[in-house]
Amino acid sequence: MDNLKAYSVWDANIRWFHWINLVCVLGLIAVGVVILNAKGLGVATEGKILLKTVHVWIGYVFATNLLWRLIWTFIGGQYARWRSILPGGQGYMNEVQGYIADLKAGRPRQYLGHNPLGRIAVTLLLCLLFVQAITGLVLAGTDIFYPPIGSWIANWIANPGVDPATLVPYAKEMYDPVAYDAMRSFRKPFITIHYYGFYILLGFALVHILAVVITELREGGNLISAMFTGKKILSETPADKRKID
């Protein structure tokens, strides 16, 4: 225990992003599951609109939080930036091979930032979150006419003589049938991506939790508590310390 040393790693922005993102993802998954099963649960049209409205507002928080995280990859601290997240760079594959070899040999390397495999996982997760945010914003406009494209969609599909600002979801008598069908064709790839992305994100979240627990048990350190305190407590010299000193 005498060899333990604390390192400041995750700044406040990273920690806030992580926990806000977790709460939003859990909320979006919970509401999304109810929306997907609304018919079987006997949810009325008004209830469906309410659920989608709640889903969209959680989505706004989720998207805003993600946007700030992406900005922070350019202006944040050394562990928050792209160079500490993206896989690749000089010697990266050697680092991956060495990390896996040491892991198999029972002497796992400790890292201040993400380990080489963790960088792949974080990059994929950020990409997945970004895709869900973009497709979700499109669906917010095509489904319940919410920003950023809701007014454009309303102007597109409103029946002649109907004020687009008065359009409400599921009121097909207010929509131009031809324009509505065209809008639904425009919407289809976005909802398909969002739908399957939902299940991928759910699976990824479970794998992420499992990976964090296994990594903490095998490599030591304090991955979970570090996301509260910002400090990693390690028993060895971090394998990536020499690269960012």
Automatic annotation (TrEMBL):
It is a multi-pass membrane protein. GO terms for biological process: respiratory electron transport chain. It comes from the Bacteria. InterPro entries: Cyt_b561_bac/Ni-Hgenase, Di-haem_cyt_TM, Hydrogenase_cytochrome, Ni-dep_Hydgase_cyt-B. One of its GO terms (molecular function) is electron transfer activity. Keywords: Cell membrane, Electron transport, Heme, Iron, Membrane, Metal-binding, Transmembrane, Transmembrane helix, Transport. The chain crosses the membrane at residues 16-36, 57-75, 120-140, 193-214. Residues 9-230 form the Cytochrome b561 bacterial/Ni-hydrogenase domain. It is found in: Cell membrane. One of its GO terms (cellular component) is plasma membrane. Signal peptide: none annotated. Belongs to the HupC/HyaC/HydC family. PANTHER family: BLL0597 PROTEIN, NI/FE-HYDROGENASE 1 B-TYPE CYTOCHROME SUBUNIT. This is Cytochrome B. It comes from endosymbiont of Galathealinum brachiosum.
